[in-house]
Amino acid sequence: MQQMSMDFNGSQREKDEANEPQILSVSDLNKAVRGQLESQFKLIWVKGEISNFKAHSSGHHYFSLKDDKAQVNAVMFRGFNQNLKFRPESGMEVLVRGKITVYEPRGTYQIFCEQMEPVGAGALQLAFEQLKAKLQSEGLFEQSRKRPLPSLPKHVAVVTSPTGAAIRDILNVLERRFRGLEVTVIPALVQGAGAPASVIEGIRKAQLLKGVDVMIVGRGGGSIEDLWGFNDEGVARAIASSRIPVISAVGHEVDFTIADFVADLRAPTPSAAAELVCRNAMELMEKIHSLKAGLWRVWNHTFSTKQMAVKHMSERLVDPKRRLQDLMLRCDEMTQRLDRAWQRRHERWANQVRVALSKLPPPREKILRLHQQIRIHLSELESEIRRQIELRNSRLARLASVLDSISPLRVLERGFSIVKKDGEVVKGSSFLKAKDQVEVILGKGAFHAEVLKVNKENHLKTLN
């Protein structure tokens, strides 16, 4: 019985343990959910509107896809978004292909996008419009920055494929229109992934050539994918920064690329670009002959006109000898008139001098009168000097009397004396001590003495 009880209890415990729920950690749960989602949704297509788009500095794109009821997080890593032909933006409706996954640290699910296409317009057309708007806002399409082509270039550089039909058309037209023109062909890829870098390198090489007057950059016609190398931003900026005027000749007349808008001149075809580069030599010769004939006509007309004018003037011309005689008579007449005028002027001046002399008093009387005035002034001056001397002497006597009354010598004559020690006047007993040698100056004479005793008290008494 005891054994049966033990077996029953053990089997019951195992049954209870089997019925208990499994306990998972958060990381285990997220990992399990990720495995379920990735296994169930291998590859999906999702259509939605881009929201909260952010291009991270690492090159990855983070955004959300939403419709009118829900949204989901999405990420497109740099390795995939580098192949996009357009730049995603918030508000753009797109179709993405990718995988569902869970970001385990946060427990959120998102789409790993591997491919993206805009809904409506094609990706290439959208990329074209985006780049066109960007460069236009920077002013690269402005007509003011475009340079005119030289009328008679001597050296042309052509950046294109050396084996395509475009280069053959260009060379045929240039050969037919102007054989003396120097042409340098710079090979470049004009189609495929490496086309933009190759065209940029060709433009750079053209800048290094000496004496290049104009440059043609282009290729023959094709689809938008074939011409896409000329819709590259790097190619556009290389054309814009070229020191050589650039003609864009890409595709057919209906084809437009970003290079056409940036170039100094757009040609509808490569052949048309060659025709724009140089004028027809025969046309130039005809123009030269026409200008030469016109010049001869103008010269003959001018010569005839001047010849007729000379004839008319010669008929109106007076005999030089007769003209000279008339001038000689005129000169004699003017000389006589000048002599008469001078004579009249001389007589008038002489009369004025005589009248002035008659009005002038005799100089001797004036001199005597001035001498008399001088003697009077000298007498007055001497009197004034004596008077001033007497005034100064009188004042000097008064001042000497006042000075004498306050002189220290007068004080000494009344019985006072001056005591000096070491040449300095002693002004009080505090300046003396016993056995000091002093000099005593009296009203008459002086003597030297030795101090026996010094009294600090004042022995002078005020007289009542």
Indicate the mean pLDDT. 83
CATH superfamily of the largest domain: Hypothetical protein af1403, domain 2
Low-confidence stretches: none
How many separate domains make up the residues?
Answer: 4
Using the alpha-carbon principal axes, give the shape.
flat
Rg, nearest Å: 63 Å
SSE run: HHEEEHEEHEHEHEHEHEHHHHHEEEE
Brief write-up:
This protein is of the alpha/beta class. The chain has helices at 2-19, 26-40, 78-81, 123-137, 165-177, 195-208, 233-240, 258-262, 270-277, 281-316, 320-359, 363-405, 408-413, and strands spanning 44-55, 61-66, 71-76, 93-103, 108-118, 155-160, 182-187, 214-219, 246-250, 265-266, 418-421, 424-425, 437-441, 446-450. The relative contact order is 0.05.
Write up what this structure looks like.
This protein is of the alpha/beta class and 464 residues long. The protein has four domains: 95 residues, OB fold (Dihydrolipoamide Acetyltransferase, E2P); 139 residues, Hypothetical protein af1403, domain 2 (Rossmann fold); 59 residues; 39 residues, no CATH class. 48% of the residues lie in helices and 19% in strands. The protein contains 13 helices and 14 strands. The strands form three sheets. Strands 1-2-3-5-4 form a five-stranded mixed beta barrel. Strands 7-6-8-9-10 form a five-stranded parallel sheet, sandwiched between helices. A four-stranded antiparallel sheet has the order 12-11-13-14, with no helix packed on it. α5 runs parallel beside α9 and α6 packs parallel to α7. The longest helix is centred in the C-terminal third of the chain and has 43 residues. The radius of gyration is 63 Å and the shape is flat. It starts with a helix and ends in a 14-residue tail after the last strand. The mean pLDDT is 83.
